[in-house]
Queue: 4 jobs
Job 1
Amino acid sequence: MEYLDESSFLIAFGKNLRKYRKLQGFTQEQLANDLGIEISQISRIERGVINTSIGNINSISKVLKIDIKDLFDF
Amino acid sequence: MEYLDESSFLIAFGKNLRKYRKLQGFTQEQLANDLGIEISQISRIERGVINTSIGNINSISKVLKIDIKDLFDF
DNA sequence: AAAAAAGTAGGCATTTATGCCTATATTTGA
DNA sequence: TCAAATATAGGCATAAATGCCTACTTTTTT
């Protein structure tokens, strides 16, 4: 198991989220709308610009209908 | 797979974190010191009072030497 | 190539997490 | 039971995420 520094972690997480979002057939806008959050936030999370909350990630996994653990599996 | 609302999720997450922290033989203070964050934050996370960041959780898994996915496995 | 769709960027105000500190409560061990 | 260790609580200042908005860039589709 490898541990990343925060910046690398956020970028890797974002890439993985993007993968699952597309896999489930969502645009950033659809995901943001279903979540009730800003589309710009999705963009920032996927690019690793911001360090979002675990609650937010729980909501995202709910909307995408995936296991939250998958979002941390990379 | 079951999806929790945010409040229930944060409480469940906190309980799980506490379980793994004790399992790895850390006090809240030791964990906070190793992380370089406030002990009061650990307490708040474990009680589900705050909605901490994914970067913080990555750091915690690193210090506890566990798989980050375990912290989301409940 | 042109138009449409999707994603990126940045500013500003607001909300929330965090740091720092002190005091209180609970749990553990002698 | 008493003392020590561990955890909880709250206030205040600061930093960071978020909401809301507009403009620009990149990608996709026709």
Note: Residues 27-29, 39-40, 42-44, 46-47, 53 of chain B lie near DNA strand D (CB under 10 Å from a C1').
Job 2
Amino acid sequence: MVAVLVIEDDDRIRLSLAMALEDEGYTVHTAATAEEGLVRQRREPADTVLVDLMLPGIDGFECIRELRRHDEVPIVVVSARDDTHDIVAALEAGADDYVVKPVATKELSARLRALRRRTRPASVAEPRPTVLGELELRPYAGEVLLRGELLALTRTEFRLLCELAEHAGQVLSRQQLLARVWEYDYGDERLVDVHVGRLRQKVEDDPGNPVRLVTVRGMGYKLQRP
Amino acid sequence: MVAVLVIEDDDRIRLSLAMALEDEGYTVHTAATAEEGLVRQRREPADTVLVDLMLPGIDGFECIRELRRHDEVPIVVVSARDDTHDIVAALEAGADDYVVKPVATKELSARLRALRRRTRPASVAEPRPTVLGELELRPYAGEVLLRGELLALTRTEFRLLCELAEHAGQVLSRQQLLARVWEYDYGDERLVDVHVGRLRQKVEDDPGNPVRLVTVRGMGYKLQRP
DNA sequence: CGAACTCGTGACAGTTGTGTGACAAAAACC
DNA sequence: GGTTTTTGTCACACAACTGTCACGAGTTCG
């Protein structure tokens, strides 16, 4: 369920936008002023914000900046003013798109979809516990649990595992691992093999038959997605 | 250094766009047709693509879809047509933004910056899997699935299949395959036969009667479109 | 019809890629 | 300062993969 917050002072426009978006399947929150919108978004964050520029009190530009101080939510400006100056200012303030009223619902909806495609899932930002099947990584704590039991990993093994986990499901070449874990631009790729081998001893139940940390012959190594 | 590819058939517009963008500090690649643009982008990928809709030959929509098959590059449509239908179609095809000509350089530049803010760094980007009927290719994961089951392909088979899949539906000559998969400029073309044969054993239900990876006598091999 | 050609495939030997145990240097710890 | 742990290098062994060849079936064409 995708929620959209509409910040717009004109009652008629706000309602018609809300109805149109609801018809497109969105859950719609509304606010008549920037202040109200900011509070609303803090309490119950929507996935996308639509904001008018000419608002009583705090104006649209300021509203965008305020939102951006704590929030990466996609912001689309819906304004009556078709002026390069405003467009540039709004985008610079942190808006992602700018459409001119009146706008066709279909277009608005398509732009929202396009924007959402580009929006990274919140997950990739900070180090947070990653659970991969029976493995649990706690990068901030420097811990790795296998079925709830703490693994005794060395620092290199830990970093290697984190790097692989960050790209779980993707093959990472020895070169890539060397660069990201060891910060070597060149070097003996066999080093990676050895450490992968050691990591396997600890991470796999049967190191002879790896199921989690697998080799992709000719390409590199991969941590399986659960 | 940020590179932008401009695909636009009108010489005057293309040049003025290119100059304007260069003034803004971008490196600009140009192409007068979609075909040229696609080749250019494959050879030397830009960070953002600007594309016109009305192009001779392959049109803008098709160009966008073709780009999106392998590339997550941000795409901005720059079109003379201000029509909801076109806008929606372009965005649905995979474009990220749509601006109407003539557009102020400042606005275009601001939109490019806004878009780039949203674009995840290339390292995190996950190429989307290619699905061809019952076959699913996941190049980044080094995996190929047939009806959901993992195939054990060797590296050469894998690369061969990827190359064929990239041009699914068209015949590739042994020469082309030798060049692209093996990076041989010359060599024994029978080598290709052998590997195609081995690949067939794994990809076809009845290798004697190939339905997916077919021979085009006298010309080469072809991976059937679903 | 037969010669020339195309293509599929099994066999095989040489090459490459990978796992691993041993070991010494380096770092961490006490 | 000595002990323990970690790290990087090496060498060997083995398995997987690759490229070549040769034979045979099927096709094309004169």
Note: The mean pLDDT of chain A is 90.
Job 3
Amino acid sequence: MVDDGTRGEADEREFLAAYDPHAYAPAAVTVDVVAMTIRAGEPLVLMVRRGASPQRGRWALPGGFVRAQDGPGGPADPDLPDAALRVLAEKTALPATLHLEQLGTYGARDRDPRMRVFSVAYMLLAPDLPDPGPGRDTAEVAWVPWRDLGHGGTARHEPAFDHAGIVADAVERARAKLEYTSLATAFLPPVFTITDLRAVYEAVWDRPLHAANFHRKILAAPGFVEDTGGLADRGGSGGGRRPRLYRAGGSAALHPPLLRSAQ
Amino acid sequence: MVDDGTRGEADEREFLAAYDPHAYAPAAVTVDVVAMTIRAGEPLVLMVRRGASPQRGRWALPGGFVRAQDGPGGPADPDLPDAALRVLAEKTALPATLHLEQLGTYGARDRDPRMRVFSVAYMLLAPDLPDPGPGRDTAEVAWVPWRDLGHGGTARHEPAFDHAGIVADAVERARAKLEYTSLATAFLPPVFTITDLRAVYEAVWDRPLHAANFHRKILAAPGFVEDTGGLADRGGSGGGRRPRLYRAGGSAALHPPLLRSAQ
DNA sequence: TGAGTTTTTCTCGATCTGAGGAGAACTTAG
DNA sequence: CTAAGTTCTCCTCAGATCGAGAAAAACTCA
């Protein structure tokens, strides 16, 4: 049975009262972006050196507040992905092609000492990007190797807040999705070789793969890559046969998957 | 270079000013729970009939506001999973064993007509639960088959707000994770048979599987299940050999995976 | 011209898969 | 008690797939 009338209105009154800004201490909704790329076989994450306390001088993920409503600072973000792209664009130039996917939301009580902050983390994958110039309100922006951002241990740059954990979640997500999706092409320009693709897998998984078997499996997976008909120019050092050029195929899922555990 | 001093303080002032409750219209953070179970081979989701407008009388996911701070309504939620379990416990009794995982956060501008709402959705998997009694502020709570909640089309119960999409995301997540993880055991009691496990896969994937090959693959995946040494009592209708009893093994990832595309 | 490099194809034994068959263990009907 | 039916478990086998290595193809550089 539907309980209508008074109960219903009470529910709605409760909804609005519970979020009367005067009744509760403030809580913020932010987006943080784990922007990943691969440069010379090294996986990198875009990090921002904090210019303000707390945690001044430490690396943090680029992020910012979600604009919930139109206000003096600008129009509202229509959706969360818009907010993610907006805050990232304030730190660096966005590439023409990118893959953006939501990673998760972090809201532990004491993750930020100033107030209760709920951060929606996004993972952004892009081909190698130019080095960013300093943003307008940030002291320093840089691409930092994944391996330097680990939890404790040998990490050279311990990130601020819980951002080390967020980066670790992004790295694990990327490693897993390379197994059963065609996500690896998001790290590459529109046209690439099978060797380029293998270099992505080797960089992300941090282990060598058998070139001949990789080649066979990629071409056996329907819709992963499609032949452009062209060959690379080459002429670089080392010599070797000119590789064929491919572009990303239409399918998002890989059948059969490429398993990390396998060779 | 670290830009310290004035810039840093300005940054922090901006942080606090931007979320001065008086300066901005309110935005809410809620949790919505997609609680899933399987009863008699039918996958079900826990839904709540809305007692208040808007969308009065339609089915919605159980959810509620995240308590960002201690307040008159109770103590703050230490983290988002705590909030998810709290709001679900207000609607139904929680099972002894459950799997809770974050699904994603939904924040499109017009998803709720009353105000800007950011909803962190959680997926909860549990063994078959008793039917819930009506909660204290809800007209009706029921387990509804997945297939009745689809977007448009033949759906018999069109859910409120964007909850059809959230359920669809949860269903797809569950289907995918059954391939690569031992998640299926979350739908089963502590002790189960291989046939019970196969029934979970068949219900979630909505297609029959070859019993003999399924049996072989489950036992070949290290750490998926472990033999308890016991046999089922049986005595039910139909007869048949008494099946062995297993419990969930320690490993979370399945190697090799069980692919949906395969038989 | 020849050595070295990289890409691509081929080979082969081992393993895995899908499909069906059949034995084992049990219930129920007669 | 026997026979028929059901369910669980194991076996078989042809075909596909995999890992590892060899080798051919195509190119650079000295």
Note: Residues 163-180 of chain A form the longest helix (18 residues).
Job 4
Amino acid sequence: MKLSQKTKYALRALQVLAREREPVRIATLAEREDIPRKFLEHILLELNNHGILSSRRGRGGGYQLRKQPEDVCLGDVVRLFDGPLAPTSCSSERAFRACDDCKDPDGCALRGVMREVRDATARILDNLSLADLNQRADAVARLTPGGR
Amino acid sequence: MKLSQKTKYALRALQVLAREREPVRIATLAEREDIPRKFLEHILLELNNHGILSSRRGRGGGYQLRKQPEDVCLGDVVRLFDGPLAPTSCSSERAFRACDDCKDPDGCALRGVMREVRDATARILDNLSLADLNQRADAVARLTPGGR
DNA sequence: GATAAAGTTGATAGAATCGGTAGAGATATG
DNA sequence: CATATCTCTACCGATTCTATCAACTTTATC
């Protein structure tokens, strides 16, 4: 499961939005996080359409988190942009599909292995919220004051 | 880390070669495992060039495992065809590279998370050999006799 | 209600990757 | 030498990824 640029941008933007609880304009986000503006529009729109963000148009508008930062987990974001966590479709929990050339998924030894990988990944990403992520970032920042 | 078709083909071929300790022809492997022949040539060649297989040309030739089935782990095969196990280059152990747009890898909270994912994946794939995989396949086959 | 700020949408495009094919070349064996 | 087999280089079509553009719609404020 290679993380796409899109997902990385999304998570960076969400980290900001999890802190600011006021609407933030696309332009501001794009500048602060150094994300191509037009590309970011797509990303935020998709997050909006999936109920993670809400938007307000017009003056004073922008995007803000619709849920609580504790209630958005990394797994959800990754799945939204990069698809199922599982390495093969046959090992996916939420999006199972037998592999095209697989005669018998239940007799496939590889599938068992890949289910282990998926489960391990999901255990990490589904138990980590935006709030946790920001908390970690703060913890690291305290350890290396001055940054860079 | 989505598993490519190439990797799946490679593992299927290796499972066969881990059982037969005689040279097996490309054509035979392609037929038995239902893999496009020309595509399989590439795959076996790459495994050969990386010291996992050895080859013999001419009559009676073919490919065979160069190492012991216990000494080839899934992690090696996956890395060969699909690249590093880590979800981001900055979280890779063997192929670390700072992300293009990352100012400070050490201060990146996401990186820490992705290292956890990488480690969990590696722990599974690097501790499982071809021999283990075949053993698992046999175990499943015994549970569902008749197959299919 | 005019106007401007802001989000929404669809089309497009270049680059990279993936799955696969073609064919000539090299080499071992009988 | 003839044949069987692997080796190597090039190429192709489809898809995905990243990103950009232009046009449109909605809303806040004056």
Note: Residues 4-6, 36, 38-39, 42, 56-61 of chain B lie near DNA strand C (CB under 10 Å from a C1').
